[in-house]
Amino acid sequence: MRVIFAGTPEFAAVALKALHDAGFEIPLVLTQPDRPAGRGMQMHASAVKQFALQHDIPVAQPVSLRLDGKYPEIAQQAHDLLKATPHDVMVVAAYGLILPLSALEIPRLGCINIHGSLLPRWRGAAPIHRAIESGDSETGITIMQMEQGLDTGPMLAIESMAIAADDSTSSLHDKLAALGGEMIVKALRQLEQSPLPATVQPEQGVTYAAKISKEEAALDFNLSAEVLDRKIRAFNPFPGAHATFNGTIVKIWHAENVTSAVNQSASAVVSGQVLAANAQDGVLVACDGGASVLRLNELQKPGGKRLPAAEFLKGFTIAAGQVFSH
Hints:
The chain is an alpha/beta fold.
């Protein structure tokens, strides 16, 4: 089976590698244009492009596929390339560009998407982040036949996975990426023999995983420690949860709700107030007006490295009674 692949980040590169290793013929890869990144803002190729070039797979990087969009000539060239490239199916994973109906109709067997949630929950751009942030106990991968709507197509395969209490977006991403690669190989093997059974998504239980903004990562200690723990894990690695301490933005990469294990002082505390800051206790912060306590386990100051709390405190002074703000 000949497979055109469309994807951009590491999540997609894992699936591309799985298809390549399984022996599928991949005549073309679509990925987003190179972007500036890092301190020097040098142009960087996507993870998918890097894998494709390492394995001599042709790559196209149109800025758009919408014939009625801002770049109709580029979109038309992309359509012409797809039509001129012999293939049976297109596999899409975290591509990041809209595939209009005119593009979806080109492959003989249509376009199949690898989506990182248990649809119809968490349609949209950031399903892994939102599942953790919302406290979901499980997530998974849905292999879906694509149509014009946002992640609305019929489901071809679905597998669930528990979300561990310490899962961050980083760790859960890696587990889901591996599962997605396994599932798409299995699905295409089945498709080589006969059409895949399709299940229409239920109308109930639809939620939307909006794109993550940097503004969301500012922690509000008026929330409970449980909610803040989920947010910190959801925003790791991007954009990185943070709070302001004495005018300095401090990133918080790992924390835990320790409300039940901490004996709080009888005196009144305010949200964000430091209850303890030492090598033994770590950094304990009052949340929700003192109703709960969050231990900050891994922190980072501007220009510094991510450090365990005990190491961080050696070079950054935090004292009990001081207050974090957002």
